[in-house]
Write a structure and sequence with these properties.
With 136 residues, the chain is mostly helical. It is built from seven helices and no strands. The relative contact order is 0.19. The N terminus is likely disordered.
């Protein structure tokens, strides 16, 4: 009988924590919005990618390997109901990611010009996701 492998045996808890630290370090350039001259398209795109990685690593920390983006966001929010707002903050950046990566465009939830506040909110949300992830 095949059994589901224990993710923490394959990819140790310390490794996941280290990977999350690496993602958090990628937030550093986004702490200073003035440098982007009020054009935040690529910032918001990259923040979506960072947040997605933190969410997937948070699930891996709980022994769940989910590589479908939408399913990962939903599952993470269901496991961490206190972080639903932070998950939504990251999820709403997806249209910027799709636009910047040349994929099928989706309607933007806000303009990427003058979006310093939204960028700062995303950074705080990602930090919170990394810090407060819990496993059942």
């Amino acid at each position: 009988m095949l059994q589901k492998p224990d993710i923490l045996t394959c990819y140790g808890q310390a490794d996941i924590a280290e990977e999350i630290k690496i993602y958090l370090a990628k937030l550093t350039p986004y702490r200073f919005p003035k440098r982007y001259n009020n054009n935040f398209l690529f910032c918001l795109s990259h923040l979506y990618s960072i947040g997605k990685g933190v969410i997937m690593l948070g699930l891996a920390k709980c022994g769940v390997l989910e590589f479908n983006r939408e399913a990962a966001f939903e599952q993470f929010a269901s496991v961490n109901p206190g972080l639903t707002a932070q998950v939504a903050t990251v999820a709403r950046l997806r249209p910027f990611y799709r636009l910047a990566s040349g994929r099928k465009p989706e309607p933007l939830p806000f303009s990427y010009h003058d979006a310093a506040r939204e960028m700062e909110e995303a950074v705080k949300a990602i930090e919170s996701l990394a810090e407060h992830t819990t496993c059942p």
